[in-house]
Amino acid sequence: MPIYFLVCYSFKTEFEIKNSITPIPMLGTLSNYKAIFNDPQSYMAFVNTILYVLLNNVISLAVAVPAAYAFSRYSFLGDKHLFFWFLASRLTPPATVAIPLFQLYLTLGIVDTHIAVALAHCLFTVPIAVWILEGFISAVPRELDEIAQLDGYSLPQFFIKILIPAIAPGIGVTAFFCFIFSWVEILLANWLTTVDAVPFGSIILRAGIALGLNPLGWISAMAVLAIIPGVLLVLLVRKHLSKGFALGQII
Amino acid sequence: MIKPIKNRSWFFILPALILVGGSTIIPLITIVNFSVHDVFYGNDFIWVGPKWFIQVLNSREFYNTLLRTFAFSAIVLAIEVPLGILIALSLPRKGPSVPFYILAIAIPLMIPWVVVGLMWLLIIHPQWGSLGSLLSLFGFQIDVNNLLTAWFVIVFVDVWHWTSLVVLLCYSGLLAIPDRYYQAARIDGANRWKIFRFVELPKINRVLMIAILLRFIDSFMVFAEPFIITRGGPGKSTVFLSQSLMRTATQQFDLGQSSATSLIYFSIIVLFSWILYKVM
User: I need a labelling partner for B238 at 20 to 30 A (CA). Which of A133, B47, B96, B273 fits?
Assistant: First the structure.
């Protein structure tokens, strides 16, 4: 319901929003969307967000697959503690790490870049990725590893040619969760960017608060655009989604 | 199944460890460092010992904010958990409508937090908002400058946004219950409440705990929605810890005090999560 109203607003002109309350837009207009796509600052905000989210996805998956593999296949010194520690890092409030992270990235010279936000978001995407992937890798029979070894696959070859195709749905689900978590986060993304890598969230925040909800139709259109990727993704992975949620029972 | 011992597998974990450690351990060390120093221009450190902690722990405002955050978490949990279970129970387990329901429930979770706040802000707007204007026809104003209304709106928005998580987790737990459990219960003549109490609840116990844990952590870190809907007002009545922390750090540039607050904040979350974890 609320989403429907938002979509309505986004197709109304400023005049119509403020002067009449109708459940459907009478004078349908695309002007709000046109305004966004004609303003580099607005549409670049979406490009920025997509860039850092994808970057975050790639990084998270690249480090999480080996880690999940190790957790799933071997027991080693401190494995249980480490696994719990991964989950526990999810407890860290973004607000507490925001300032030190800013200084750290300042030292590294990557403030206001996509990589900075992508790295910061690893704080919560990597633990979730490890957690979900561990379940999927454990579902792959161990014999597969041994056969691959007998066939003369080296470890990197095994990962790329055997393991990753075998857990493809798992990787899809993981990527989906990482995407969503990174997409909706605003505190860190807003805080670590100033000009070049500003996410759409900051723009909405600024228009919503500093400018007192002006212009209304334009903000609504921005918001609608911000919802679309999530909804599209759910539609895309809805079959595998239940599997991902079902993993909640494993831990 | 027994897993072979292989300490070399640490190398597999190492990249993930460095990455996550880089955004938790290093910042935490920095915060500890800041919290016992007076920092000037980010590079002049003067040792002040526990001064900031004493200052924070003696400030009324900190306790008020803490209390508000706890109250918010408690209210939100008290509504979302029973409601989530109820919705999960009433969803059909099989049939062609299942994917549709799942989709409808999952959608609020996919919306960026800022947008959630903005969306509701628009809806309750007394002049332009659909709900807001409808209610003002009946002479009822949604005024976020009223203490009670502001709280009501924030809690309502959070419930709208996050009950889905509880529903989805519980639902996945319920799906895992084999049919024969229900058959057995029916043979024993159990009524609906008894089925829930003795068959379903023990089975969804674990996922429910995960849901509660996640909801507790996230509601305790709540930032975007109150920030955009009420801006912390009226007065400071809806300022929660995350927001007050960001304000001290980024507007007053008070690194020592905000770091000390961060550490206290973080310890509270860890402590409570640990208690919840032990209880489950």
Answer: B273
Rg value, chain B, Cα: 23
The count of C-alpha atoms lying within 13 angstroms of the C-alpha of B106, restricted to the half-sphere facing its C-beta, is 27
Domain-embedded: residue B7: no
Q: Chain A within 8 Å of B125 (Cβ-Cβ)?
A: yes
- Residues 148-187 on B with a CB inside 8 Å of A are 160, 168-169, 171-173, 175-176
Interchain CB contact of A232 with B (< 8 Å): no
Handedness of CA B127, B129, B135, B140 (dihedral sign): negative
**B107, A3: Cβ pair inside 8 Å?**
yes
Say what the ipTM of the complex is: 0.72
The answer to which of A180-184, A246-250, B21-25, B206-210 has the lowest mean pLDDT is A246-250
Interface of B with A in 193-212 (CB under 8 A): 206-207, 210
> pLDDT tens for residues B182-241?
888 888 877 888 888 887 888 777 778 878 888 888 888 777 777 777 776 666 666 777
Total count of domains within chain B: 1
Retrieve residue A239's tokens.
């079959």
Long-range contacts of A142-145 (CB under 8 A, 24+ apart): A142/A73, A142/B1, A145/A73
- How many other β-carbons are positioned within 10 Å of the β-carbon of residue A51? 18
User: Mean pLDDT throughout A123-144?
Assistant: 81
Q: What is the pLDDT of residues A73-91, one digit of tens each?
A: 877 776 777 777 777 777 7
Contacts of B93 in chain A (CB under 8 A): none
CATH number at residue B91: 1.10.3720.10
> A93 vs B15: CB contact, 8 Å cut-off?
no
Q: Please provide the CATH number assigned to the domain covering A2-249.
A: 1.10.3720.10
